[in-house]
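sorry to bug you again but im stuck and you know this stuff better than me. what follows is a protein written twice so to speak, once as letters and once as structure tokens for the fold. id like you to explain what the token line says about the fold, in plain words if possible. anything you notice is useful, everything is just below.
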Amino acid sequence: MLHRQLQDAGLNETEAKIYLASLELGQTSVSRIAKKAGIKRTTVYLSLENLMQKGLVSAIKKEGKSHYYAEDPRNLERIMVEKKERISKVIPELLAFTNLIDRKPEIRYFEGDEGIKEVLMNALINADGEILTMYSESYINDFDEKFFSEYYVPERIRRRISARALLPDNNQMRELAMTNEISLRKTRFVFADLFKIKIEVMIYDRDKLSIISYKEKFALIIESPAIHDSFKSIFETMWAGAK
């Protein structure tokens, strides 16, 4: 049992057995350690060298022969701290390296009104200061509009997340735009006969895109830098040309 815990602390199986044998025997010879641990002497020599480098075993000469003894077990704690520090130093480089690897997009699917609310909340939790949205009046006709007016928008404002929205140019959407200032929102309009969008598209964070169909009661969250950046480019192009 103890040798397994020592493996969790960073020793391999052979080193763990040798260290435990050394602790039990005290100052002793390689042959006695090998017998106690049930490991070949040649292997014990190599592992003792590794344990000495880690500060867990020391050696002295007695009558021309090397004797070994286990150091304070609390040195294991020092080893773990040093290992954690080394890992912490290399993490930024590893993360930078992962950015070079092409990854498949992660797609999550949600159903029903509760699933749609979960997707909307995901945007609030992950948005990096702004949410870009393309939407139609479907959210008014096919969803609980009170969820937006009584919870979602107030929560977005509380979190200081602004919104930019592209809307079809009709009376219903013009009425919505009248609340822009108090809703921390900017809107621009696209010709309704061209902008016949039946879903809501939300672009946020550095890699997330949500697609919501209020009428069909389902939603998707797509995590992909390529898809996010492409839709953001489309949004900005439309935003520049909208009124």
Q: What stands out?
A: The mean pLDDT is 85.
